[in-house]
Amino acid sequence: MAQTVLNRLPITKARINLGAVVKRAHLNKEYFILEKDGIPIAGIMGIDEFQDYLELRDPKVREHIRKSHQDYLAGKSRPIEHFISEIRNRRGLKTKRR
Predict the structure, then answer these.
(1) Which residues of the chain are in CATH 3.40.1620.10 domains?
(2) Is the overall model pTM greater than 0.90, yes or no?
């Protein structure tokens, strides 16, 4: 997994180069901390990650994650390879019936 790049820049410079900053946030998954007089005041990140962030703030999503983690710790999970194999086998059975 690639490491996220964190950039700090004055808000005036970000304003002048807003198109380039947004493009880098979107395409390169970079973060930008915008500063005014050296004080961080805002951040820029790609929309996909921002939507994930907002979703994680939803109490229903957090509860689902908590329950899923408990199931995992209790051994109620299985490797993804087994699940994918099962799905493929089911699809194979459906196509053979036709």
Answers:
(1) 1-46
(2) no
